[in-house]
């Protein structure tokens, strides 16, 4: 098998406020992805977020996290990373 990377996305402490609505949102998601070790990779994962109110999880929405990662393929070290989060 070729070398691989285990990518862990942990958004359990993610919180935000709507830019226009000023409503507070929270999240409790995690993802573990196994990816081939390549010089440059784009990783996308979805997660749920919801209003920080009692029962808010009943009206959860979906967001996508997109991460751009570059690796040193000899050592496996991350050499650059950036990302965005967008709501659907």
Short description:
This protein is mainly β and 88 residues long. The protein is 0% helix and 60% strand.
Protein described:
The protein has 88 residues and is mostly beta strands. It has one domain. It is 0% helix and 60% strand. The protein has no helices and seven strands. It has strands spanning 4-10, 15-17, 24-26, 30-36, 40-51, 61-71, 78-87. The strands form two sheets. The protein has a five-stranded antiparallel β-sheet, with no helix packed on it. It is elongated, with a radius of gyration of 16 Å. It starts with a strand and ends with a strand. The mean pLDDT is 91.
Q: Order of strands across the widest beta sheet?
A: 2-3-5-6-7
Question: Which assembly state applies to the chains in this document?
Answer: single chain
Structural class: mainly beta
Overall average residue pLDDT = 91
Number of discrete helical segments? 0
Elements, N to C (H/E) = EEEEEEE
Distance between the termini: 36 Å
Q: How much helicity do the residues have?
A: under 10%
Q: Any idea what the radius of gyration is?
A: 16 Å
Number of strands: 7
Overall shape? elongated
**Sheet of most strands:** 5 strands, antiparallel
| The number of domains | 1
- The fraction of residues assigned to DSSP E strands is over 45%
- Any low-confidence stretches, pLDDT <50, length ≥5? none
């Amino acid at each position: 098998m070729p070398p691989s990377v285990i990518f862990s996305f942990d958004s359990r402490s993610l919180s935000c406020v709507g830019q226009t609505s000023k409503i507070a949102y929270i999240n409790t998601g995690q993802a573990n992805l196994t990816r081939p070790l390549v010089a440059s990779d784009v990783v996308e994962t979805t997660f749920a977020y919801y209003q920080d109110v009692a029962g808010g999880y009943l009206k959860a929405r979906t967001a996508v996290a997109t991460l751009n990662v570059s690796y040193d393929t000899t050592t496996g070290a991350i050499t650059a990373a950036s990302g965005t989060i967008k709501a659907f």
